[in-house]
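Ligand: magnesium ion. Inputs:
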Amino acid sequence: MRPGAGPAIRATALSKCYGSTRALAAVDLEVGAGTVLALLGPNGAGKSTTVRILTTLTAPDSGRAEVAGYDVIRQAHLVRASIGLAGQHAAVDGRLTGRENLIMVGRLHRLSHREARRRAAELLERFDLVPVADRPAHSYSGGTRRRIDLAASLVSRAPVLFLDEPTTGLDPRSRSDLWDLVDELVGNGTAVLLTTQYLDEADRLADHITVVDHGRVVAEGSPEELKRSIGSERLSVRVHELEQLFTVSEAMRRIGGHTAVADPVAREVTTCTPDGARLLTEVIHGLDGTGIVLDGAELLRPSLDDVFLALTLRGGSE
Ligand SMILES: Nc1ncnc2c1ncn2[C@@H]1O[C@H](COP(=O)(O)OP(=O)(O)OP(=O)(O)O)[C@@H](O)[C@H]1O
Ligand SMILES: [Mg+2]
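Predicted complex:
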């Protein structure tokens, strides 16, 4: 990576049309070293197009992007030398074995034959591929091909890694292994841009999420920020004695500035709030000196699924 060159990935106003289809319309994004950006969006949103532009496989109509400090158009060869890519569709040569595929990628990255063999063996081990390593790749199951492809993206130990739907088609165990691996890479300073349809994956891995739809960024932020942006968490607190209910609902209204609904049967007061944890702390403080001790509290947070649906549920994208 070019030293002192700023973020690992920076894209400004990327636009791209395929005929009359506008695949991307002025997309901005940024990924720092040692962080993960998840590009989240429904089918046809423009995720793969973004990845293809940033990995120099296709040129934007307008806008600019730097990866590892290099311009994706003018310095495409330097970008290619700085990145690992596992595209949406596994790029594995079916005539070669898994091991030969990885060795070939190593050789393309100018590793010595010995070093390429060593790296291939290491990655085959890491991806649990040793038992199938010497079979031709055309005989592999979809998930196994995918794992070879992911291993190939790591051969060169690139500082910037692009993973386009990396866990689609993987079984739960391989999926969770890949998540651990991404954690490890990021811990060592790798910048990762991944696309995913799996919201739990974005929630688990991403420092920052950019939601795209119809080629535009429709929301961005940390997983927590995005969840908060569509509102509301629901805080319910339970009191021990029914006569305490009024005092507590008054305290919640006073502090939270929201409507609090009291349910005498459940002895609960419930309110919607953008930050339930803070409100709960403040309510507990506010009850200081009243002698009232809460019997229980429950905080329900919106999931990323709620965010995704709220942002993109406007019919098909294509
Ligand atoms: N080579 C191409 N020729 C014509 N249209 C294309 C081409 N590649 C992409 N498109 C169109 O551009 C839009 C964005 O496609 P893209 O593959 O970037 O979406 P995506 O978010 O990766 O979707 P998916 O979740 O299905 O992988 C879609 O409408 C798609 O049909
Ligand atoms: Mg795609």
